[in-house]
C-alpha cells in the first residue's frame, strides 16, 4: 500500500531515552536472546527510547555460548536500571518467553513480547496503553508492521480471526494483558521452531479474546535468511499439525477493533484516563509546543510544517504533534525526525481525545499551543484556554476558502479569535481578509511568508537531459509547462484541459507535464484522452522529488481557484522557472512581471464545482503562456534571485521563532470567560457536525488501505450502517455541504429518528 516508505528510518539507531521520576512499571517487556550480537543493542535502544517510560525490560538469555554476544549483552544490561538479564538453558523461543513472564514484576499489568532483532516505534507503548485502557474487553494491542533487512515490505492487514486459522498475519510484538496471557497458560509449546507465535494467537482467539489493531507503522520485523521463521518453514509439517489442532478449538471468534473506526458516542467526552500514570520527566526544553494538524500529506501547508520543524533549534524547542484526520500520512516519517507524533485516529476513539491531550500537556509540560488547519484543534481552544489560561495560543492560516465553511480556516480562526493570542498568515491578502472581513484585531495578525529550501531547489544540482530521460520525455524541442499539484477541485484541472486544448490550436511546440494525483485525476486524464490531447500531455502521477520536475520545466502553471501563497510557486522560482498563476490569495505578492505572469481569476470561489469556464479566462492563460515563452530568458534569470533576496526558509523559520518568543514572553494573555462544561460543548459540537465527513474519510481510508468497506458490526454501528451510507451520500451533495451548522445537525437528528 505504502510505496514511498523509507526503510532507512529504523528506530533505535541511537539511544535517546528521557530522564524521568521513578515509578512502578506498568509493562513487562520480555526479550528472548540467543547469540544475537548484531542486533540486541538497537532493539534495546528503541525500547529505552519509548515515550512511556514506566516499564521493566527483561532480557532472557536462552543459553548463549558466543562470547562476543555475551559481552554485548553485558554491555546493554548496564544502559539503564530498568534492565534485568536472566540466563537459562537453551529451550527455544516459547519456553524463553514463558520464563520471562515468570520473572516479571507482580505489579505490571501488561506483557510486551519482542524478539532481540526486532524494533518498535518510540510511541507504541503509549498508544497501545491508551488503546487497551479505553477498550477494556480487548486482550492485546498490535500495530501495522514493517518487514526490513533482507526482505522489505509494509504489512497492514485487516484483522480476521477466521483467516487466522489458515494463515498467520500477526507478528509476536504486541502489548498483551497479563490475565489474557495466563488464561491460555502462555506459549506452552516446548518444541522449537513450530510457529509458536501463531499458535499463541489461536489459543487466545479460541478463548474469545480479540485485539485492538493500531493503524500506523509501529513494529519492525527483521527478515533474515535464517531465523525462527525460516526454521518453522522447514518444520512445516509438524507446525501445521499443531496449528490445525489449536484452530479446531475456535468456535465463535470475536471480531477485533480496527482503527480508524467510527463510533457514535460523542456525548460523554472523557477528560482523563485515570488508569494510565502520567510520566514526570525531569528535563524540559524552553519551548514545549503542542501542535495541532489535520494530517501529514504532501500539501503546501504540510510542507510548511515540515520545513519549520527542520529549522527549530533543538536545544530550545520540543514539538509534539497531534493529527486528527485518518490518512496514510506519507510525510509522517520525515516529520518524526523532528517531532513526536500521535495520530489520534490510529489508536483512540474520539470521546477520549481530550483526555489524551490533557495527558500530553501534563507529561510534556506544554507551554504553547500551535494550531494550523486543524478543525479539532480549533474546537479545543476554548477548553484549553479555560483549563490552561497561562499557556499562549497561536495559529497559522494559509488562506481563506469561501467554498468551505464560508471561509475555511480563516473562518475558524475568526470564530475562535477570543481564545487565540496571535494569528499568523502566509500573505497580506489573507491578513486583510481576517482584519477587514472577519474583524480580527489588526494587532493580533501578522504575515510570515512560508519560504523555500533554496539548497534543495537549486537548478545547479540537476542535468536536464538526464532528468528528461529518467521520466521518458523525448520532446526536447518543446517548451515544457509543468502542473505540479493535487489534482482536485481547488486546483481547477478541468480549466487546464481547456487551456491545453486552446494553446495547441496556436502552437505545437509545447508539452504539459502533470505531476500529482487526487480525486479528479481520472476525470482529468479521461478528458485529455477523449479530446485527443495525449501527445501534448505527460502524466507522471504523484512525484516525491518534485525538484526534478522543475528542473526539466521551462514554465509552471497554477490555475487554482484558491491559494494562500502556493508552495509550488516558491519552489518553481527557486529553480529558476517562471510561474504563470491565477491572481488568487497572495500569489501576486510573490509573482510579478519580472518573474512570471499573473492571470485574473474570473470565477467566484463558490463556483469551485462549476467546470464551465469563460472563453475570456481560457484565452488569458493562452496569452500568458505566449508572453512568458517570448520573454523566457529574462524571466528565468530573475526568478531565483527574487527568492534568494526575500523568501528563503531560513528567513521564514527566523520570523516564526521571533513570533513564538514574543508570544511566550507576553505578560497579558487572553482569558476564557466560560467554564469547562461549556468549553467541552465546542468539541462535542464539532464532532457531531463532522459526523458525515468523519464517516466518509474513515471509509476512504479502509478502502485505500484494506480494499474493503469499513463496517463495525458491534453495537449501534451494526444497526445504523444504512444510516451511515445515507450520510456519506448526503455529504457529497452540494446542498448538504452548504447547510449552516444548526440546520445540518437538525437534519441529522431528523434522519436518526427515522
Flag low-confidence runs: 713-729, 731-737
Work out the number of β strands.
23
Q: How large is the count of helical segments?
A: 30
Radius of gyration, taken over Cα atoms and rounded to an integer in Å: 28 Å
Structural shape: globular
Residue share in helix: 25-40%
The structural class is: alpha/beta
Main beta sheet strand tally, sense and closure? 10 strands, mixed
Please give the alpha-carbon distance between the first and last residues. 39 Å
Report mean pLDDT, rounded to a whole number.
Answer: 91
Notes on the structure:
- It is a single chain.
- This protein is of the alpha/beta class and 754 residues long.
- It contains 30 helices and 23 strands.
- Strand 6 and strand 7 (153-155) form a beta hairpin.
- The two termini are 39 Å apart.
Defining traits:
alpha/beta; 10-stranded mixed beta sheet; 7-stranded parallel beta sheet; 16% strand; single chain; globular; 754 residues
Give a short summary of the structure.
The chain has 754 residues and is α/β, with parallel strands linked by helices.
Ordered list of secondary-structure elements with their pairings:
Elements: E1 27-33, H1 40-48, E2 55-62, H2 67-77, E3 83-88, H3 93-102, E4 110-113, E5 119-120, H4 124-133, E6 140-149, E7 153-155, H5 161-164, E8 174-177, H6 178-183, H7 196-206, E9 211-223, H8 228-234, H9 236-247, E10 257-258, E11 287-293, H10 300-311, E12 317-323, H11 332-335, E13 340-343, H12 353-364, E14 368-371, H13 375-387, E15 393-397, H14 408-415, E16 422-425, H15 428-437, E17 445-447, H16 464-470, E18 479-484, H17 493-506, E19 510-515, H18 521-530, E20 537-541, H19 546-551, E21 555-558, H20 567-574, E22 579-582, H21 587-590, E23 596-599, H22 615-630, H23 632-646, H24 649-664, H25 676-689, H26 691-706, H27 715-719, H28 721-731, H29 734-738, H30 741-753
Parallel strand pairs: 1-2, 1-4, 2-3, 6-9, 9-10, 11-12, 11-14, 12-13, 14-15, 15-16, 16-17, 18-19, 18-21, 19-20, 21-22, 22-23
Antiparallel strand pairs: 4-8, 5-9, 6-7, 6-8
Helix pairs in contact: 7-9, 13-25, 17-22, 20-23, 26-28
Amino acid at each position: 500500500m505504502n510505496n514511498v516508505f523509507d526503510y532507512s528510518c529504523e528506530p533505535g539507531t541511537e539511544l535517546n531515552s528521557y530522564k524521568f521520576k521513578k515509578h512502578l512499571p506498568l509493562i513487562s517487556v520480555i526479550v528472548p536472546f540467543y547469540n544475537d550480537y548484531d542486533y540486541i543493542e538497537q532493539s534495546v535502544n528503541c525500547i529505552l527510547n519509548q515515550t512511556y517510560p514506566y516499564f521493566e525490560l527483561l532480557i532472557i538469555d536462552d543459553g548463549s555460548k558466543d562470547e562476543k554476544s555475551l559481552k554485548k549483552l553485558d554491555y546493554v544490561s548496564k544502559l539503564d536500571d530498568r534492565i534485568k538479564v536472566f540466563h537459562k538453558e537453551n529451550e527455544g523461543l516459547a519456553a524463553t518467553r514463558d520464563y520471562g513472564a515468570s520473572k516479571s514484576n507482580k505489579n505490571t499489568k501488561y506483557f510486551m513480547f519482542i524478539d532481540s532483532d526486532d524494533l518498535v516505534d518510540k510511541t507504541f507503548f503509549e498508544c497501545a496503553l491508551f488503546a487497551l485502557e479505553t477498550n477494556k474487553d480487548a486482550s492485546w494491542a498490535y500495530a501495522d508492521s514493517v518487514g526490513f533487512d533482507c526482505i522489505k515490505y509494509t504489512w497492514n492487514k485487516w484483522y480476521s480471526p477466521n483467516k487466522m486459522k489458515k494463515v498467520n498475519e500477526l507478528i509476536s510484538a504486541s502489548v498483551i494483558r497479563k490475565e489474557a496471557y495466563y488464561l491460555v497458560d502462555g506459549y506452552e509449546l516446548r518444541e522449537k521452531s513450530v510457529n509458536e507465535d501463531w499458535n499463541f494467537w489461536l489459543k487466545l482467539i479460541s478463548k474469545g479474546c480479540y485485539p485492538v489493531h493500531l493503524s500506523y507503522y509501529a513494529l519492525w520485523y527483521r527478515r533474515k535468511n535464517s531465523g525462527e521463521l525460516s526454521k518453522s518453514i522447514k518444520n512445516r509439517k509438524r507446525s501445521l499439525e499443531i496449528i490445525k489442532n489449536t484452530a479446531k478449538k475456535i468456535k465463535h471468534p470475536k471480531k477485533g477493533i480496527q482503527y480508524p473506526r467510527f463510533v457514535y458516542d460523542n456525548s460523554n467526552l472523557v477528560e482523563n484516563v485515570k488508569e494510565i500514570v502520567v510520566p514526570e520527566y525531569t528535563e524540559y526544553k524552553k519551548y514545549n509546543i503542542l501542535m495541532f494538524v489535520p494530517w501529514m500529506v504532501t500539501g503546501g501547508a504540510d510542507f510548511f510544517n515540515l520545513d519549520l520543524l527542520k529549522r527549530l533549534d533543538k536545544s530550545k524547542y520540543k514539538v509534539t504533534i497531534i493529527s486528527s484526520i485518518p490518512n496514510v500520512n506519507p510525510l509522517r516519517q520525515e516529520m518524526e525526525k523532528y517531532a513526536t507524533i500521535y495520530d489520534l485516529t490510529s489508536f483512540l476513539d474520539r470521546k477520549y481525545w481530550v483526555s489524551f491531550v490533557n495527558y500530553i500537556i501534563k507529561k510534556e509540560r506544554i507551554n504553547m499551543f500551535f494550531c494550523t488547519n486543524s478543525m479539532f484543534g480549533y474546537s479545543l481552544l476554548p477548553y484549553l484556554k479555560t483549563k490552561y489560561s497561562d499557556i499562549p495560543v497561536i495559529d497559522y492560516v494559509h488562506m481563506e476558502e469561501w467554498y468551505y465553511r464560508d471561509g475555511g480556516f480563516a473562518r475558524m480562526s475568526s470564530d475562535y479569535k477570543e481564545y487565540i493570542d496571535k494569528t499568523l498568515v502566509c500573505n497580506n491578502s489573507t491578513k486583510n481578509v481576517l482584519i477587514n472581513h472577519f474583524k480580527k484585531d489588526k494587532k493580533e495578525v501578522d504575515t510570515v511568508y512560508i519560504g523555500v529550501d533554496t539548497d534543495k531547489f537549486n537548478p545547479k544540482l540537476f542535468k536536464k537531459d538526464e532528468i528528461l530521460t529518467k521520466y521518458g520525455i523525448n520532446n526536447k524541442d518543446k517548451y515544457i509547462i509543468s502542473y505540479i499539484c493535487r489534482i482536485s477541485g481547488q486546483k481547477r484541472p478541468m480549466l487546464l484541459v481547456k487551456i491545453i486544448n486552446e494553446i495547441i490550436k496556436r502552437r505545437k511546440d509545447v508539452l504539459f507535464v502533470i505531476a500529482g494525483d487526487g480525486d479528479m485525476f481520472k476525470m482529468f486524464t479521461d478528458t485529455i484522452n477523449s479530446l485527443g490531447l495525449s501527445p501534448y500531455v505527460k502524466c507522471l502521477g504523484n512525484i516525491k522529488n518534485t525538484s526534478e520536475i522543475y528542473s526539466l520545466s521551462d514554465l509552471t502553471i497554477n490555475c487554482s481557484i484558491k491559494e494562500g501563497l502556493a508552495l509550488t510557486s516558491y519552489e518553481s522560482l527557486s529553480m529558476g522557472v517562471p510561474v504563470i498563476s491565477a491572481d488568487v490569495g497572495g500569489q501576486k505578492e510573490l509573482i510579478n512581471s519580472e518573474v512570471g505572469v499573473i492571470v485574473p481569476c474570473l470565477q467566484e470561489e463558490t463556483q469551485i464545482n462549476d467546470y464551465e469556464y469563460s472563453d475570456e479566462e481560457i484565452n488569458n492563460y493562452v496569452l500568458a503562456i505566449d508572453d512568458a515563452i517570448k520573454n523566457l530568458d529574462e524571466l528565468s534569470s530573475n526568478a531565483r534571485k527574487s527568492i534568494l533576496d526575500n523568501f528563503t526558509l531560513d528567513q521564514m523559520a527566523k520570523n516564526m521563532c521571533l513570533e513564538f518568543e514574543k508570544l511566550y514572553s507576553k505578560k497579558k494573555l487572553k482569558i476564557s470567560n466560560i467554564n469547562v462544561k461549556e468549553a467541552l460543548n465546542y468539541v462535542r459540537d464539532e464532532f457531531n457536525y463532522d459526523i458525515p465527513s468523519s464517516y466518509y474519510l474513515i471509509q476512504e481510508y479502509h478502502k485505500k488501505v484494506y480494499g474493503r468497506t469499513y463496517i463495525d458490526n458491534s453495537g449501534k454501528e451494526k444497526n445504523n450502517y444504512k444510516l451511515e451510507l445515507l450520510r456519506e451520500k448526503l455529504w457529497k451533495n452540494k446542498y448538504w455541504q452548504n447547510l449552516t451548522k444548526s440546520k445540518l445537525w437538525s437534519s441529522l437528528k431528523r434522519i436518526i429518528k427515522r
